[in-house]
Amino acid sequence: MQALHLSDNRGIKDDHLAVGEGTVPFAAILSLLKEKGFAGSWVIETTCVADAELSISRLSQQR
């Protein structure tokens, strides 16, 4: 089984920001994952539930 741990950051440290709040190019990453047929689990790594929920919402819109 494969798992992908997702969080955003500002490019300096592991901030665990909500997806879309930092500098990680998620649109390109998600496109590549889809192209390669990634079928594993996604683990959202944030510092609070609200950021996790925001990340899930944003990722769902990009799928």
Can you give keywords for this protein?
alpha+beta; 63 residues
Note down, in words, how this protein is organized.
This protein is α+β, with helices and mostly antiparallel strands and 63 residues long. Helices cover 40% and strands 13% of the residues. Strand 1, helix 1 and strand 2 form a beta-alpha-beta unit. The longest helix has 14 residues, at 49-62. The mean pLDDT is 93.
**Reading side by side through the largest sheet, how are the strands ordered?**
1-2
Give the SSE order as H and E letters.
EHEH
Strand count? 2
**What is the averaged pLDDT score?**
93
* Radius of gyration, CA atoms, in whole angstroms: 11 Å
The portion of residues assigned to helices is 25-40%
Query: What fraction strand?
Result: 5-15%
**Structure class:** alpha+beta
Sum up the overall morphology in one term.
Answer: globular
Largest sheet features: 2 strands, parallel
Residue runs with pLDDT of under 50 for 5 or more positions: none
Number of helical stretches of at least 4 residues: 2
- The termini sit apart by 21 Å
List the helices and strands and how they pair.
Layout: E1 3-6, H1 26-36, E2 41-44, H2 49-62
Parallel strand pairs: 1-2
Q: What's this, in brief?
A:
The chain has 63 residues and is an alpha+beta fold. It has helices spanning 26-36, 49-62; strands spanning 3-6, 41-44.
